[in-house]
Amino acid sequence: MIDTLAEVLPPLMPMLAGVPLLTGALAAAFRKRRTLRHVISLATLTGILVFSVLMVVVTAQGTVLAHQVGLWNYGIAIPFVVDAIAALVLMIISILGITSVMFAMGTHEARARFYHPFVLILFAGVSGALMTGDIFNLFVFIEVMLLPSYGLLAMMGAKLGANGARIYVTVNLLASTMLLAGIALVYGTAGSVNLAELHGAAAEDPAVAIGGGVMLVALSIKAAVVPVHGWLTRTYPMTSPAVTALFSGIHTKVSIYAIYRIYSVLFDGDPTFLWVALVVTSLTMAIGVFGAMGEKTTRSILVFHMISQIGYILIGAGLFTVFGLTAAIFYLLHHMIVKASLFLSTGAIEETYGTGEISKLGGMLRREPLVAVTFMVAALSLAGLPPFSGFVAKFTIIQATLQESHYWVAIVAVVVSVFTLLSMLKIWTGVFMGPEPKNLEADALESQARMHGKRYLRVEAQAETPTLSIGPPTATTTAVWEGRQAVKVPIKLIIPGAILAAITVFFGLGAELLMMLSETAAEQLMDPSDYVEAVSGA
Amino acid sequence: MSIAVAVGLLTAASVYLFMQRGMVRIVLGFVLVSHAANLIIFAAGNPAFREIPYVGVAAPDDQADPLPQAFVLTAIVIAFSITMFMVTLAITTTTDDDTETEEESPVKVLTSSMPTVAAPRSTNGDADAPEPRTSQLPAQHSRAEERRDGEGGRP
Question: pTM, whole model, 2 decimals?
Fold first, then answer.
C-alpha cells in the first residue's frame, strides 16, 4: 500500500501547486456565484489536506519523494521533493487554511470577490515553496505566496489605513531582493541553484557560505527574527482578524522551514555559526515577549508573542542535534495551530464587539463561555502547561538545550514562558474576567453597522422595521439597535478556533505520534543524504 | 569590475532613497535595488562570455550562460508587478504619498476606527427618548487634516 503510494504520489506533486492556481483562476472567473466560490475554495484546500496526509503517511518511514518537473534530467529540471518535514508543515498549513477560510466565511469577508482566489493562489505558493528543491524556484514561489497576501492585507485592512500594507510590501520586497542577491551569489560561486547539487557547498567554501548567509538573513527578515521584527508588529494587526490568523501560520513559518532546509542541505549543519543563531533566538524570545507585555489590544499582544515563539522554534537551528531539531519541529507544528487558534478566538470577539482593546472589553467569561474555553486552552498551551501540546514542545526544547549545555538559553526559555503566561493572563483578566463595560452592547452594534454597513447590510434588526440606513446613526436606527437582542459571538465564528484548540489538546495527549514524525523529519534534516539521493536518483 | 561598480552605485542610491520621505521615492529606491539584484545575477553567469546564447549563433564556448538570463527575466516580471502594486498604494487611501506620519501603532489605529465612548445617556433607566448618538464618528480624516493644519505656516 505504502509502496504503491510512494510510486504514485511523486508525479502528482506538481499538482499541489498547479491545482490551486487553476481553481484560484476559476474562482476569480465566477463573478456572481458566491456559493460556488466557497465550494471551490474549501474543496481545493481539503484536497491539499488529504494529499498532504497521504504524503505524511508515506514519508513517516523516512522515504523521500522526489519528482523532476517536466521529466528533465537531474540538475536541469526543477525538482519537487517532499520529506517528512515538508509533508508535516504542508498538512498543518492546510488545516489552518481551512479553518481561517471558515472564519472568513463567518465574518462575510470571504464574500469579497477576490478573497478565495487570493487564498488559493497563496496556497499554490506555499505548497510550491515547501516542495521545491531549487533555491531560485523557492524565491519565485515565495513571491507567488506574497503577492496575493499583499492583496488580502490591503483589501481587508483598507479601513485601518494604508500604512500596514505599505510597510508589509516594502519590507518584504527588500527581503525578497536580498534573497535574490544571495541566490545569485550562490550561483556565481557554486555554479548551481539545485539544493541537492549544492549539498555541503557552504561548509566547504566560505564564498558560498557568504551567499548562503545573505539568503539566511533575508529569510530571517521574512521570519521576523529580533533585530528585524518591527515590521511584523506593525502590519499583522492592521488587517482583519481572519487574515491575521491565516498569515500567522504561513509566511513566517514557510521562512522558518526554508531556513531549516538551507542550513541542513547547503550548510550541511556546519556547527561554526550556531552560536550566532543561539544569541539571536534568545534575544527574539525575550524581546518578543516584553513587547507583548506592553501592548494594549489582544491582537497586537498575540503578534508580539508570535515573534517570541519564532525564537523558540529557531533554537533548533542553533542546536542542530537530532533531539534539538525534533523538539523544534514539534514546536513549529504545535505553534502554528495554537497561534491561529488564539487569533481566531480573540478575532471572534473583535469582530462581534467591534474592538480588540482590552480596556474596552470585559466579562466575556459569562457572556461567551465557549470562546473563553477555546481561548484558555490555546493560551495555556502557548504558555506551555501540562495537558496541552505546548508543554511537550517547551519541555523537549529545554531538555535539548540542556543536553548541549547551553544553560543560559534554557534559562531564557523558561523565564520567557513565565512572561508569556503573564501576558496571556493580561488578556484573560482584561477580556474575559471582570465587569462588563457599560456600553459594551451598544458600542458593539454600532461598530458592526459601521464596519459592515458600507459593504453589506447584515445588521439584522429584531424590530419590525429591519431597514438600516448606511452611515452615521440617526434617532431611528439607534432605537432599532437598542431594541435588539443581546449581542453574541455567532457559533460559526467559534467553531474554527475551537477545532484548532481541540487539535492542540490532541497533540498534547497523543504527543507520541507527532513526536515520532518530528523525529523522522529531524533525522532527515541532520543527514540530508537521503534527500540528495532521492533528488539525484543515485 | 564594471558590474560591481554599477551594483554598488545602484545599491547606495537605493538605500538613500529608502530613507527619504514620500512613498514614490521609496518605490524609486526599489526600482534601483532590483536593478542591482538583476545585475548581480548577470555577473553570476560570468560576463566574460559575451555571445548570444542561441543554438547555432555562436560557438558554445563563447555563448553567455542562459540560466541567469532566465532568472533575470523572471525577477524583472516579479519586481515589476510589485512595483505597480506599490505605486497604487502610494496614490490610494491617503491624500498624499507622505510616509512620515505620526507614530501609527496598531493600537491607535485599531481603536480610533472603533466607536468612542457613547454620548451621555440618561442614567436612571427611562430611555424612552434615547439621544441620537451622532457625534461619534472617528476622526478618520483628521490625520490628513492635522497635517495640513500643521503645515499651514509653510509656503
Answer: 0.87
